[in-house]
Write the structure tokens for this entry.
Amino acid sequence: MQIQALIAKIGTMMGYSIWLPKADRGRVLRAWKAEPGELLDQLPLGYDSTTMKTVEQIDVIWLRKRSIVRAFEVEHTTSVYSGLLRMADLVALQPDINIKLHIVAPAEKQEKVLQEIRRPVFSLLEGRALSEMCSYLSYDNIKDIADLKHLGHLSDKVIEDYEERAEQA
């Protein structure tokens, strides 16, 4: 929950609205105090109900107006699969979607995350492979990003300086 809260805080500092799953909100909001208007009560997206059920369960989403910019799945105690399957479901349901996807996990899970992103089943998605859309960020990377000076003046592209991609591994 601490990492979810930190990702939400980074997003708001960069000017994004935040989505958190309803089930996580109480715990995350103990670590992150959202200002009015920062945390969305409803997703302003026009997807079908199946897609919306998937999107609503993603751990942290950064939105600009009515568009998802980045989606984060935090894998701490759960297996790496749950987050990857949710991301793959999203891409399978919306093959033309063009957002940045991230699996955030402790450093000791790095190789496992990258290995799983490269699984053949994830390369068979319509449009493009999950490995082209989804990257790994360690907890330490998230903390480093949160500590950046002038974070509010930076673009979300700064994340690309910290992410690790499966095709690079």
Summary: The chain has one domain: 2-168. Helices lie at 2-13, 22-31, 49-55, 80-93, 110-117, 120-123, 139-146. Strands lie at 17-19, 60-64, 67-74, 100-105, 134-138, 164-165.
